[in-house]
Amino acid sequence: MKKVTQFLVFSSLFISMLLAHVSVSAQNIKPDEDNAGLTLPKGFAALKVADNLGRTRHIVVNKQGAIYAKLERLDNGKGVLVLKDTDGDGRAETKTSFGNYTGTGIAIKGNYLYAASNKEVFKYALNDNGDIVDENAAATIVTGLVDKGQHNSKSITLDNAGNIYVNVGAPSNSCQEKDRTKGSMGMMPCPILDSAGGIWQFKVDQLNQSYASGVRYATGLRNVVGLDWNNQLNQLFVTQHGRDMLNNLFPDLYDTTISAELPSETMYAIKKGDNAGWPFIYYDHVKGKKMMAPEYGGDGVKTVDDKYINPAMAFPAHMAPNGLLFYTGNQFPARYKNGAFIAFHGSWNRSPLPQEGYYVVFVPYENGKPTGKWEVFANGFSGKSVVKNPRDAQHRPCGLAEGPDGSLYISDDVKGTIYRIMYQK
Amino acid sequence: MQRIYLTFVVLFLFIAGASAQTNNKLVAASIARGKTVYLQRCMVCHQADGGGVPKLNAPLDASTAVNGSDVSKLIKYIVKGFADRVEIDGELYSNAMPAAADLTDQQIADVLTFIRSNWSNKAGPVSTLQVKQTRSKLK
Fold this sequence. Notes:
The complex is a heterodimer of chains A (425) and B (139).
Chain A: H1 2-28, E1 44-50, E2 56-61, E3 67-75, E4 78-84, E5 94-98, E6 106-109, E7 112-116, E8 121-125, E9 139-142, E10 156-158, E11 163-168, E12 198-203, E13 215-219, E14 224-230, E15 235-240, H2 246-249, H3 256-261, E16 265-270, E17 274-275, E18 281-284, E19 289-292, E20 313-315, E21 321-326, E22 340-344, E23 359-363, E24 365-366, E25 369-370, E26 375-378, E27 397-402, E28 408-412, E29 418-423
Parallel strand pairs in A: 13-17
Antiparallel strand pairs in A: 1-29, 2-3, 3-4, 4-5, 6-7, 7-8, 8-9, 10-11, 11-12, 12-13, 14-15, 15-16, 16-20, 18-19, 21-22, 22-23, 23-26, 24-25, 27-28, 28-29
Chain B: H1 2-46, H2 64-67, H3 71-80, E1 87-88, E2 91-92, H4 105-117, H5 128-138
Antiparallel strand pairs in B: 1-2
């Protein structure tokens, strides 16, 4: 009995030491003097965990604090990076890599890491240290997804019931007979929707699933890059890149200013079977209406009121929401808990107006719903006060992840910088 | 005899100079018209600085193909569009280039002349005749 008590005392001491270590770690880590070049709300600080990694798309942090980053272009033949902070200074000292495929999506659920190419999803077992057991033993759980170049990145998230959700972006702007061609009308029905333009659901424990064995969980989503499972609401949320080029394709109906400001970028709360309406509609956040697309008879005035779901939140046009994360940590002030961070990659088709985005926003939630107001949380990635041309942006935010201590991690896919944001009062 | 020869040389130089000047004026007018076409039809993707969009839309500024001597290839891209997934100066671009077959021969010549002489590009003008000839072979 004495032994048992001794064991309990020791183990609880050990556990509390561990917890203490985790909870104070962000306070002890010294941020970069210039906050990694970022502008943040009062009390927040930032550092560069790593730099010049290549095209780091989505990222995930394991329980031990190691970062897994998916690369869009291979680095020495490898497509997944593993970054570790071995001395506790918040910066990564070691970098290893594995996987011979490019892609975007990466996620951890339980003791497994999931990583996506532009056609497949692979699953790797993790050991108790959060390391890959055997990087050559990837199980292909999903295969054969559409990859035609345009909108081909696959993002992934998992629920708590053994399912994985994969976006399949439409290889098209608006399902025109001739893509992005002036005056070309929309195909009816839109044949793309059979295998793209939606979210597909697969089982985590089955191999080689594809369209026949998966479920088209939601459709009418042009190109989703950010998606996250909201554990508080037990629901899938996605961020869609809205259509481009209203003016160039239909100059008689839309002027360049309208084309720069519309359509909205949108976040949807998804239920199984939902249809968000692409390519038949686009969302206008100024009017608060779903508008009939010009390829399908729209004129900038006609609305579509039934059939399709409304967004949970809408944002200005073309900012490219590439990363979505519901914050569940305790490090940040209470108002951030269960709210959404969105990484906006930044626009390209707002010219002649200046480009927009290139920052991370926060969407406050109350009672499981967004308040409707969003705020820029982290800015300064581009290194420019105004981005006129996308190639001028030094960094572009892409992926988001939460660390075990509640720090927020942001990836950049221009130079391959990983940022860590901490609250230090 | 020598005087006659000299007169010929002077006359020749004068005519050559005048025609070069006329030519410069024509090219300048073509560039001005081409800029209008560019702003309406090309800029949204290829951008005001001709830099394109990394990974999506190919840059025109400092592009090997744009500055190259094979003008017929450029004419074809505009008339027929370009959907192949190929590396351009070491980079892949995922958006397809739509065909702009509604542009006239002169508009295509103008916009190419504008593109080939703008930003850091220093390639020669494209004539309406070149567009006409290339286009007739495409049909």
